[in-house]
Amino acid sequence: MAAMTSTADTSGTSDAPRPLLNRRLAEFGTTIFAEMSALALRTGAINLGQGFPDRDGPDEVREAAVRALRDGRGNQYPPGPGVPELRQAVTAHQQRRYGLPYDPDTEVLVTAGATEAIAASLLALVEPGDEVIALEPYYDSYAACIAMAGGRRVPVTLRPRDGAYHLDLDELRDAVTPRTRLILLNTPHNPTGTVLTREELAAIAALAVERDLLVVTDEVYEHLVYDGEHIPLASFPGMRERTVTISSAGKTFSFTGWKVGWITASAALVAAVRSAKQYLTYVSAGPFQYAVAEALALPDTYFDGLRAELTAKRDLLGTGLAEAGFDVYRPSGTYFVTTDIRPLGAPEGGDGFAFCRALPERCGVVAIPNAVFYDDRAAGAPFVRFAFCKRTEVLQDAVDRLKVLQKGGSA
Fold this sequence. Notes:
Layout: H1 32-43, E1 46-47, H2 59-71, H3 84-98, E2 108-111, H4 113-125, E3 131-136, H5 140-148, E4 152-157, E5 159-161, E6 164-166, H6 169-175, E7 180-186, H7 198-211, E8 214-218, E9 243-248, H8 250-253, E10 261-264, H9 267-277, H10 286-296, H11 300-324, E11 327-329, E12 336-340, H12 352-363, E13 365-366, E14 368-369, H13 377-380, E15 383-387, H14 392-402
Parallel strand pairs: 1-13, 3-4, 3-7, 7-8, 8-9
Antiparallel strand pairs: 2-10, 5-6, 9-10, 11-12, 12-15, 14-15
Helix pairs in contact: 1-12, 2-10, 3-10, 4-5, 4-9, 11-14
C-alpha cells in the first residue's frame, strides 16, 4: 500500500500528497506517557510519570476474576450494556454513596475503561462545529476525543494560587457561547489534584441549566479525595437529565489493565452514548465485569483504608519534592502532585519538557511535563507532574534521589 495518495487536476499537475492521518488528529502524535515510560525503561529510572499502581489491588477482587474465568462467566461476548451484576452494583454504589437512583437496565452502560466512555459520549453528543469547554490542564485524551467528534475545544484554565489550583467561575461563564454544546468536567481533577467544592459545582450546575448545556463528568478519582469531598454534579437540581457521569474500576481498585468503566445517565443519554459505543469495542472485559461487581460491594473500610494509604503517600512525596527545591501544589485528590520547577534554577529554566527528559539521567526519576495538558503550552511550561500511587519504599527511594537537585547536580 502506498504511504500517501495524491490527486491530479485537469491541467495534468498533481496536488500536494495527502497525509494518511485524518487532519482532525494531525496535532496528536505519540502520547507523552509512552515517551516517558520508554525513557524510564531505557534508563532504569523510577517511573513516577504514568498513573498506574505498582502492585495489584485486593486479593478477593482478583480471585473473583479467576472464579469467573473458571466458571465460564464472561468468556464469550457479554451483553452490550454490560453484565447485569455489574450494572446492578453500579446503581447500588451510586445510591449508597450519593443518593442517586439509576435504573440498571436503562441508565447504566459498561465501557472499556473511562477513556472509551469519554470518547463514546463525545462522539454521540457533539456535532462538527460544536464547542466543548474543558478545564485546562486536561487529560490528553480529552482533546483527541473532541477532535474526533469534530468539536472545537474551549479551555478554561485552572490557575495556581496559594499552593493549589483554582477555577475562575467568571471565566467559565464567559467561555459559554451560542455554539457551546457541553462542558467536559473532571473532578477530582487530573493533573492538578483539584476537588471542586459544593459551591463551585452548584454554580456550574446553574450555568448548565441556564444555558441548556450537557455536561460529561469524569469522576474516576471519586474515591481518592484527601481534603474536602467528592460530590457528583448529577446530584444538583436540574442536572440528572443533562449529565453523563463516568467512572471506572482502575483507579479505585488498582487493576488498571482490566479497563472496566461505566457511565450513569438518563435513559435517553445512555441510549445516545450506547449508539456510538457499540461501534467502538462493542463489548469487553467479560470476566472482569463480574469481579468489579464484587469490588463495588466491598465494605467502607476498604475505601477508607485506600484513602488513608494514599494520603500518607501524597504527603511523603510532596514533602520530599519541597525539600528537593520544587514549589509543590498540594493535591486534594487523585494520584498526582504538580510542581513548579523554576525555584530549582535548573539549566532548563521553565521548560518542563527539557527538565523531564533530562531528569532520568540527572537523578533516576521520571515525571510528566504538564505542558502536554495545555492548549497554551507556555502557560504549562514550568509545571511538572509526579505520581504517588507507588509502594512507599519506591517513593522514599525517589525522594532520596531527587535531593540531588538541591545542588543542581546529578546522582
